[in-house]
Design goal:
single chain; about 0% strand; elongated; 10 helices; mainly alpha; disordered N terminus; about 55% helix
Length: about 240
């Protein structure tokens, strides 16, 4: 029996050879990659480890169907701007039809379902550009109603009904001094006096006085103006 000193690997070399070749002293080929957990089917019924959640359904999902920040915000902003635009259009339509007090416009917006905060914001914007101004409205109203023969007392009541601040209304009505008010009453009676010609005096006084009373004139002004007008007619 001869000694075996040939190229065969010694017994003591086998641990190193096993590390290089994968064991057994023979080439075992490439080492297979480690496998992770197997992925399961996608869908609402998929549960447990490894299940894939559909996009837009997870806790971190964003977008229209998710709960993240991109699913909210822009719609609210758009709807708010649309409500402002609609409220502004309603107010402008009513201002185009004729002068309106702020309280009248607010009431009309409420009737159309516009929220109080939106109405307040829109009316503030219109006030800033001079389209809603109760002081100017009161002056215009006083002038127009005075031309129709209304008394200061009647005009004051109308402004109060229209929601104009009492102080603002008072300042506007102050322009109707006593002389101006009397002139308006005289002009109104002169336009109507022909309709009572030939009637008994007391009937004439009652009918002409009723016209002025409905315009809000005091009894003192009524008697002075009516009797003066009838005297002028009788003297012709």
């Amino acid at each position: 029996m001869g000694s075996s000193d040939g190229p065969r690997a010694r017994r003591g070399d086998r641990p190193v050879l096993s590390l290089l070749t994968g064991g057994g002293g023979h080439d075992a080929g490439p080492v297979p990659a480690a496998r992770g957990p197997r992925l399961r089917a996608v869908g609402p019924e998929a549960t447990g480890p490894g299940a894939i959640e559909p996009a837009g359904t997870g806790s971190g999902a964003t977008g229209p169907t998710g709960t993240g920040p991109t699913g909210t915000g822009s719609d609210d902003t758009g709807s708010g701007a649309a409500e402002d635009a609609e409220a502004r259009a309603i107010a402008l339509r009513h201002l185009t039809a004729g002068p309106r007090s702020r309280a009248e416009l607010a009431a009309r917006l409420a009737q159309r379902g516009v929220g109080a905060d939106v109405a307040r914001s829109v009316l503030d914007q219109l006030h800033d550009v001079g389209l809603v101004d109760d002081a100017e409205f009161a002056r215009t109203w006083v002038s127009a109603r005075q031309a129709k023969g209304l008394s200061a007392r009647a005009v004051t009541h109308e402004l109060r009904v229209k929601g104009v601040d009492p102080e603002v209304a008072s300042l506007a009505v102050e322009a109707m001094d006593a002389d101006t008010e009397r002139v308006a009453a005289e002009q109104l009676v002169l336009r109507k006096v022909a309709s009572v010609r030939g009637l008994p005096r007391d009937t004439q006084v009652r009918r002409l006085g009723g016209i002025l009373a409905r315009k809000g004139y005091s009894s003192t002004v009524i008697m002075q103006v009516v009797l003066a007008a009838l005297d002028d007619v009788d003297g012709e």
